[in-house]
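Example complex used in Figure S2.
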Amino acid sequence: MNTVKEMRRGFVASIPMIVGGIPFGLLFGSLASSHGLSPWFAIAMSAIVFAGSAQFVALGLIALHAPIWVIVSTTFIVNLRHLLYAADMVKFVRHLPLSMRFLMGFGLIDETYAAVRPMYGIGAVNEDSGHKVYLGSFLSFYIMWNLTTLLGILSGELIPGMSHWGLEFAMVATFIGIITPYLKHKSFWLCLVCAGGSSILLSGLPNNLGLLVSALIGVLMGVVADAMVNSKPQKDNDIKEVES
Amino acid sequence: MTLPDYILIITGMFIVTFGVRFVLFARADKVVMPAFVEKALKFVPVAVLTSIITPMTLMPNKHINISLDNPWLLGAIAAFVVGIWRQQQLLTIVVGVLVFFVAKYW
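Predicted assembly (350 residues):
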């Protein structure tokens, strides 16, 4: 019973982002059908790949008749950020059995990381409960993503204009909802401004490389700002103060 | 697109996506992150997510559009202000989406 309770906490912490993800999943399904792709392809992609933004990028590339190796390598670059999330989570999962880490790796998406990571930071979860909360978050996103993909395919066939409504804005709003709680220190603001500015300047780079480079610039500037602040005596600006 | 193409795309995307997410977890009992990496990692969500959404917001049609005619920008500003002010994720998302759709279809 305890496991169910912990999983419920993960679900509850994820509700805002699940709401934000629903239009995005609908859009994915309807885009796939408006591109004339097999419904099974879209269903399989959501079930097996389970990577929101990479799935959209892949659809766009398929529409442009890009070669398969370009689709796969672009997916790799778009999802490289998850390596960084994993690097941050390693210390919380090292005591878990491999099968659990396998499952958690499959479910390591922006939203679950954003929902659960701060709970470790403030001590709301520990070694015993963290992975259960995580699984609750992952499972609720997985169910939502696959259901909305299916609904999107069905409604995309009924409502042909749906893919032009701008439903992808829901992702922008969700990501802003993830970012803003961090902005309590100047170093995070500098990180935001530098990453945002460089992503515009570098938007012409091929294969979404601009995303990767500007993210690195943002991280670097945050670290530099931190180092400058910490050279003066001041209270620790740790992620602990980020609340979900 | 033929069936083998579909299978190749999904298999390829699965391998790189899962690989990236799992590789460190697979060795989690042995991997130790250097201290400077730990310090840098807390900036990853802000840096990555900002890099994804800024071009979508400021250049929705592939060229810069900073004006009141850009519903992406208006929606993002609304979400950002509510996010900073109220610190409530659901409210942030709902207000942002509402402002976007009002600006787009008014």
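Chain B touches chain A through 68 residues (CB under 8 Å). The longest helix of chain B spans residues 3-26.
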